[in-house]
Design goal:
Blueprint: E1 16-24, E2 27-41, E3 46-59, E4 67-76, E5 79-86, E6 89-96, E7 102-105, E8 114-121, E9 125-131, E10 139-140, E11 148-149, E12 154-155, E13 157-162
Antiparallel strand pairs: 1-2, 1-4, 1-13, 2-3, 4-5, 5-6, 5-8, 6-7, 8-9, 9-13, 10-11, 10-12
Length: 164
């Protein structure tokens, strides 16, 4: 990846869709809104694995990365500001709970943008930090299920991989 922080044409005052990964050194960890569970199946009681969409963002090695729609809002000297939503259901917007957790909200009025701080670009990727509209950096809780928050946890850097 280039150390170039000049904004490429695909992100400059444009909207796009992208997968979101957290970075742990060179390792990419998928950010997901899905969680796995195990439940008894029928009369045998054998466990069956399932997946549920609870809308809370978390790091999850077992899932594919969430695809978000980055809808361009504005920019400042070192930040690109986007409204973020689930690409497959753009009515589900990324917001923050009263406790600081990041989640997808369908029936709430989400008016706050997200600040993306570019660290490096390549043709289709962006290495960055993400902050809420007040400048609080997105973090991850150390304990499983590793939810994303803006209130407590370990600071993260992200890799945004453009899909369109």
């Amino acid at each position: 990846m280039s150390d170039n922080t000049a904004i490429p044409s695909w992100a400059d005052e444009r909207s796009f869709s992208a997968h979101l990964f957290a970075l742990d050194g060179a390792q990419k960890i998928p950010v997901s809104h899905l969680s796995q569970f195990y439940a008894p199946l029928g009369s045998t009681g054998a466990l069956q694995q399932g997946t549920t969409d609870d809308g809370w963002l978390r790091l999850n090695h077992a899932q594919t990365a969430i695809t978000l729609r980055f809808h361009y809002h504005s920019q400042t000297l070192n930040r690109l500001n986007f409204m973020l939503s689930l690409d497959s259901d753009r009515n589900r917007k990324l917001g923050i709970s009263r406790n600081g957790y990041l989640g997808l909200y369908k029936y709430s009025n989400i008016d706050d943008f997200w600040k993306v701080e570019p660290l490096a670009w390549s043709e289709d990727t962006l290495h960055c930090r993400i902050r809420d509209h007040q400048g609080q950096q997105v973090k991850v809780l150390a304990s499983s299920p590793h939810h994303l928050t803006v209130s407590k946890g370990n600071i993260l850097e992200f890799l945004v991989v453009r899909t369109s």
